[in-house]
Write a structure and sequence with these properties.
- By secondary structure, the protein is an alpha+beta fold.
- It has five domains: about 130 residues, no CATH class; about 30 residues, no CATH class; about 120 residues, 2-Layer Sandwich (Tetrahydropterin Synthase, Chain A), CATH 3.30.479.30; about 80 residues; about 45 residues, no CATH class.
- Helices cover about 30% and strands about 35% of the residues.
- Helix 2 crosses helix 4.
- Strands 12, 13, 15 and 16 form a four-stranded antiparallel sheet that branches.
- It starts with a strand and ends with a strand.
């Protein structure tokens, strides 16, 4: 009943409600309220340069957007539903906006600042919890698979660009270029479920998958037991490669063995493999296991240990078996890496046998080595004796030659001496004279040395005479 005086600042507003009407008074001002009215003081809404507010008229339900920068004073029948910030788009970014009243989608791309309309909302990027999407940089390695929302059709976009979809388009996936090496092959399944092959030896060895197509993925058995399908394969390697496998088998004398095997195998016909199996290693090992178990069961432990490689090789590769060829697989070699008894006691006995065999082989090897050393020694001695005999023979020949030369020289000297004597001397006198001179030469040589020479009386013409008993003798 009593009027009130209100002093309003620049950012204040009065909401005045009468019995049938409502209105607002904006500051700054002084206002005196009339009797029988209710007054509410409220602040204006400050909107920054990037802010805007969604405002609804409570009488008509109309919506409007008020952009900043401004100080927003509402009318008596208006209310602020929410205060929003403008979406800033950089180059290469875009946002999809849905009008809730008409269902129309529009796309805004950067660089710009985007404000929503009264009935619009920003759509989240597919698979992401964010409104702003990045354009897809289509280039050498990336392409985009698009779906047309109007027709439902798919198309592949490969033209290099920073791609932003149109309002009626949806990016189904970003496709990467498939690049194949010379030894690689991939299987492609089209929209009708038909298979086609692409090889690294083809002229077009790098490509994008067409729409509605996919690379066939196979799960291969892994581990030495090949009991888990843990390897996912899309690119088939057609080079020869090794594969390890472990299995158990029982011999004819009921000994259970643990056998480690190495397969050297190769995929040679991918088309056959795809038609018959999705697990080439698992099928190969399973079939080989059956053949090996059958072969081992027909031999004793001793026989198997003596020729296990040959038994396993003959069981897997020695018979006419179309199983591997039907799956496009070739086995180049099969080898046993190790054999052990599954039972510990039997394995200990087998280890002792192997140790004894090893010791025996070592002893034989040692004896062979010793024999080889002795043979080498005897051969060396024989060769040395042979060389020594040849040396003696050469020495004998040399001595003989020297003696012959010395004899010939002596004969010439003697002949020259005899020829130089007086011809009146007889031959006996000449010989006696030569002998006398030789004795003189010998005595001369002995007199110059320390040797002792003993002559018999006949050699020196010496006689001894004895006179009386005085002990004195006479010699000549």
């Amino acid at each position: 009943m009593i009027p009130w005086v209100f002093f309003l600042k620049e950012d204040e507003q009065l909401l005045i409600e009468g019995l049938t009407t409502r209105w607002t008074i904006d500051g700054p001002r002084v206002y005196v309220t009339p009797p029988l009215h209710w007054v509410t003081r409220r602040k204006g809404t400050l909107l920054g340069p990037m802010d805007y507010a969604r405002v609804r008229d409570t009488l008509t339900g109309d919506l409007k957007m008020v952009r900043g920068p401004t100080l927003l004073f509402l009318k008596a029948s208006e209310e602020v539903l929410e205060t929003l910030s403008a979406i800033t788009l950089k180059k290469g970014e875009y946002v999809r906006l849905l009008d809730g009243r008409t269902g129309v989608i529009r796309v805004e791309r950067g660089e710009q600042t985007v404000y929503l309309g009264p009935t619009e909302k920003a759509l989240e990027a597919p698979g992401q919890r964010r409104m702003v999407c990045e354009a897809v940089n289509i280039g050498e390695d990336l392409a985009v698979v698009l779906r047309d929302r109007a027709t439902g059709g798919l198309q592949l976009v490969t033209e290099p660009q920073a791609f932003v979809p149109a309002p009626n388009e949806e990016i189904v996936e970003v496709s990467r270029r498939v690049r194949l090496e010379d030894h690689e092959t991939v299987v492609i399944k089209d929209k009708d479920g038909r298979f086609s092959l692409r090889r690294g030896t083809d002229e077009e060895r790098s490509f994008f998958l067409p729409p509605f197509s996919e690379l066939v993925s196979m799960r291969w058995s892994t581990g030495v037991l090949k009991n888990e399908r843990g390897l996912e394969v899309t690119h088939l390697d057609t080079r020869p490669k090794f594969m390890w496998f472990q299995m158990t088998a029982r011999t004819q004398d009921n000994v259970e063995l643990l056998i480690d095997i190495t397969f050297f195998w190769q995929i040679v016909d991918v088309e056959k493999m795809i038609r018959t199996t999705d697990d080439a290693p698992g099928d190969t090992c399973s079939h080989a296991r059956s053949a090996i178990i059958q072969a081992v069961s027909q031999t004793t432990l001793e026989e198997f240990l003596a020729k296990f490689n040959g038994i396993v090789r003959d069981a897997v590769m020695g018979r006419l078996d179309a199983f591997y060829a039907e799956r496009g697989v070739v086995l180049h070699a099969v080898e046993v890496r190790s054999v052990s008894c599954k039972d510990a006691a039997t394995q200990n006995t087998l280890a002792e046998i192997i140790q004894e065999t090893t010791d025996r082989l070592n002893r034989l090897q040692k004896q062979e080595s010793e024999n080889e050393v002795k043979l080498k020694q005897l051969s060396g001695e024989m060769e040395a004796e042979s060389l020594r005999g040849r040396l003696l023979e050469m020495q004998r020949e040399h001595v003989k030659a020297e003696g012959q030369m010395a004899g010939e020289a002596e004969a010439l000297r003697v002949n020259g001496f005899l020829d130089g004597l007086n011809p009146s001397l007889s031959a006996e006198d000449k010989v006696e004279l030569f002998r006398l001179l030789r004795k003189q030469e010998a005595l001369d040589k002995l007199s110059r040395g320390t040797a002792q020479l003993y002559f018999t009386p006949a050699d020196v013409n010496l006689s001894i005479e004895t006179h009386g008993g005085n002990g004195h003798g006479k010699s000549r």
